[in-house]
């Protein structure tokens, strides 16, 4: 029994996203849980999920989950805000956590005026998943949402700092209603968005709490593994393996924006349609 439990503890954590954004969660987990092995799948061939219809999002997510199951992971994380909106409709909800609940809990704890903003993909905002979760935790909160369809493409194409006029103009437009409503806390409802948190912070005048879904999810995972006696017993640094559904010539270069190091040697292409 002890050997079986040890084997379970030392299985990797599975993480998936529609592209690169989930790497912000990988970075946060690596910092908080340095001994854990991670298997990451980025569906680069079918991104973005945020513009897809619900049926297609669920179908893609179930294939992503099946792939990670084939890697014998001990838990599965949806690092995609869009998919996290539909976690309860997926194949194995008992294995999965998303970014929504941890982010909402943090926002509810931080807000002082109970005015909370949410930015996300069009599909995420349309699902109202953040609103539903926030109202469970903070029933009297005033919640303001804004879909930001331009942000993921801009980030994926390397427009990530204040030198990009396109990015700054888009962010200023999207932040306008939050300034008008005087929100004091904003959930970055897509794991891409922490990459541009400095631009968002500037647009909001530096007066708003920004909730990073990757960091909040990492804290949630640590607590879950501790409570279930599933923390890795390895003493050395964890291993990290990355899988994508479509080769892109600059995937490793873009991944460097999220992780801070090159992952080319640890990246493989797979046929996700087999799952």
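^ structure tokens above, recovered residues below v
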């Amino acid at each position: 029994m002890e050997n079986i439990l040890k084997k379970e503890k030392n299985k990797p954590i599975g993480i998936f996203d529609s592209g690169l954004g989930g790497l912000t969660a990988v970075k946060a987990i690596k910092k908080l849980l340095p001994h854990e092995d991670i298997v990451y799948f980025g569906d680069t061939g079918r991104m973005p999920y945020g513009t897809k219809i619900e049926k297609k999002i669920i179908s893609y997510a179930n294939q992503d989950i099946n792939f990670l199951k084939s890697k014998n992971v001990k838990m599965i994380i949806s690092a995609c805000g869009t998919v996290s909106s539909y976690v309860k409709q997926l194949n194995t909800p008992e294995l999965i956590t998303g970014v929504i609940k941890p982010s909402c809990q943090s926002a509810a704890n931080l807000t002082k005026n109970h005015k909370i903003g949410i930015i996300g993909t069009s599909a995420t905002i349309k699902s109202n998943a953040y609103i539903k979760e926030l109202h469970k935790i903070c029933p009297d909160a005033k919640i303001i949402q804004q879909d930001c369809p331009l942000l993921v493409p801009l980030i994926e194409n390397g427009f990530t700092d204040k030198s990009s006029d396109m990015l700054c103009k888009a962010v200023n437009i999207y932040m306008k209603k939050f300034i008008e409503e005087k929100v004091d806390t904003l959930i970055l409802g897509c794991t891409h968005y922490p990459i541009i948190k400095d631009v968002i912070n500037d647009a909001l005048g530096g007066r708003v709490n920004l909730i990073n879904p990757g960091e909040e999810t990492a804290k949630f995972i640590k607590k879950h593994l501790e409570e279930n006696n599933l923390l890795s017993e390895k003493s050395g640094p964890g291993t990290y393996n990355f899988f994508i559904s479509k080769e892109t010539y600059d995937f490793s270069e873009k991944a460097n924006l999220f992780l801070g190091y090159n992952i080319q040697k640890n990246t493989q292409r797979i046929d996700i349609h087999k799952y």
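Residues 54-70 form the longest helix (17 residues).
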